[in-house]
Amino acid sequence: MTLLETSGLVYSYPGGVLALNGLNLKVKRGRRLAILGPNGAGKTTLLLHLNGTLRPASGQVLLDGAAVSYSRAGLSAWRRRVGLVLQDADDQLFAASVAEDVSFGPLNLGLSEHEARLRVEETLAALNIADLAERPPHMLSFGQKKRVALAGAVAMRPDALLLDEPTAGLDSHGAAHLLGVLKKLEATGTTLVFTTHDAGLAYGFAHEVALFAGGQVLAQGEPEKVLSDTALLEASHLRLPLILGLGLKARACGLLAEGAPLPRSGQDLELLLEKAAARQLSI
Q: Which of 127, 196, 276, 283 is the Cys-Cys partner for 255 at CB 3.0 to 4.6 Å?
């Protein structure tokens, strides 16, 4: 079922800089969707339309099949259901402590202070940052700020969570931890939409990929199909993900049966090689 949909979105920044050019996109409920494209493709601008921060010059955004409202009440209801986490966490953190920052959204939902406190405690524990509750945001590391900004959105319990370049600036350990947290959120029913220019991340983590260039979606579908199209990748100034390329090579060499799932991670690739080596030894 489609949760969010855009139809013919057009948007230009001051000076006539066209950011979205008749953009069409579908966000399916319960799926992890990667919005993949180079810098300047319009990815962040799209996210800002999906939660009502920006309003298109033409076209529309649909939520559960109905056109959204840009009235104050309409925007408030929309943003309760569609949360946004910006790339730079400093743009979202403003309170004196982590707990206060995360409680802002729940309190605005009309929850009592007791209910909001319980939700904050639950959210911080889920993201493994309960020990940061009383810490001032400006004293946090980059990765900690990322998780606190995420906690602020998660505490609202949105139907969909939009994340702009969620792993940008994180080391491999921090990125893996954040992706693990996002998987847990998805397991609770949250639909995830994230932007990235990393084709490897999109291939390994997303259920579906929307390939962007020039303010348009060039293709949307299963990662294996979209990201193995070299013409589309070239048009988007992207490269074939390494693991996907090795998987396709393994299939072409007969190491992987036609129709068998391609490796999506380094662990999958290692298992494939181990099985291939075992077959060779048994001959």
A: 276
Instruction: Count CB atoms within 10 A of the CB of residue 192.
Output: 22
Place of tokens 């990815």: 43
C-alpha–C-alpha distance, residues 110 and 156, integer Å: 11
**174 and 230 belong to one structural domain:** yes
How many other C-beta atoms can be found within 10 angstroms of the C-beta atom of residue 214? 16
Distance spanning both ends of the chain, measured CA to CA: 48
Q: What domain range includes position 257?
A: 241-283
Do residues 226 and 260 both lie within one domain? no
Domain identity same for 16 and 42: yes
Q: What is the DSSP letter of 13?
A: E
Average pLDDT, the chain: 90
For the CA atoms of 181, 185, 187, 191, the dihedral, rounded to the nearest 10 degrees, stands at: -130
Domain count, the chain: 2
Residues 224 and 252 in one domain: no
Between residues 150 and 277, the one the model is more confident about? 150
Q: What pTM was computed for the model?
A: 0.90
Residue 261 DSSP one-character state? P
Amino acid at 102: V
The SS3 assignment for 164 reads: strand
What's the per-residue H, E or C state across 69-114? Answer: CCCHHHHHHHHHHEEEECCCHHHCCCCCCHHHHHHHHHHHCCCCHH
Q: Are residues 231 and 255 in the same domain?
A: no
